[in-house]
Amino acid sequence: MAGSSAAGRGARPDVAAVVVGGGGGQRLGGVSKPDLVLGGVRLIDRVCAVLTGACGAGCVAVVPPAVRVPDGVTRTLEDPPGGGPLAGIDAGLSALGLGARGLVVVVSVDAPGVGEFVPLLLAEPLGEAADGRIVRGGDPEPFDQYLMGVYRAASLRRAIDEAVAAYGSVRGVGVRRVLRSLALERVEVDALACRDVDTPEDLVWWEARLTRALPRENADYDGRSGASRRGVITR
Question: Could you report the per-residue pLDDT of 72-123, keeping only the tens digit for each?
Fold first, then answer.
């Protein structure tokens, strides 16, 4: 598990993080998503910098051996590789070895807006009856973003174990199919903050957003500051 030296001063000691490697990038020509450079920074470096600054209980990146991970971040991979995001979460959770009372932030590596939504996820304690809190946003209509959330480690492990019992394994099983059974709070964010990187158009859009200062009235988030003007938690 990653050492505490990687965590920022404001990192919460009860929160760990799992970065899910982002698949094979087929719509981007088969590139390694973690190694994509946007705004002069690799995606994995951008995401892990935010998470190690917020999560003091360790950060695990579920990525292939060819991907260089930042200092202080642990690497793991589902076995066999290519099992999908839920299998990646399972591998990351196992690598962390958290106690039952810990929290786990789960983020896909192709989420450049991580600096905006992670502070919103952690801004308030989870409700006593909640298993976690996820981002709700997107275009053209908002939807639940299960790979942008914070979960109780025990609840996440329970849901995965139940899926294994039901399906034989979590390889190829959809994240939404399994995690929608959890009692989750939602935090609403602007669609821009939770736009991921799936297509060449997404690459162009994020590169423009991360390499120029946007007028204050045109953006809630400049890609660097982590500032946010929106975040309504619903239960």
Answer: 999 999 999 999 999 999 999 999 988 878 999 999 999 999 999 999 999 9
Token pair belonging to 29: 């020509």
Q: What is the pTM of this model?
A: 0.86
Between helix 43-54 and helix 114-122 the angle, nearest 10°, is 20
CB atoms within 10 A of CB 65: 9
C-alpha 212 chain-centroid distance: 24
3-state secondary structure of 128: coil
Distance CA 144, CA 164 (A): 23
Long-range CB contact pairs, 155-163, < 8 A, 24+: 155/131, 155/182, 156/89, 156/93, 156/104, 156/106, 156/131, 156/132, 156/182, 157/93, 159/131, 160/86, 160/89, 160/90, 160/93, 163/86
According to DSSP, the β-strands at 143-152 and 103-108 are: antiparallel
Q: How far apart are CA 17 and CA 11, in angstroms?
A: 11
In this structure, what token pair is assigned to residue 204? Answer: 């162009």
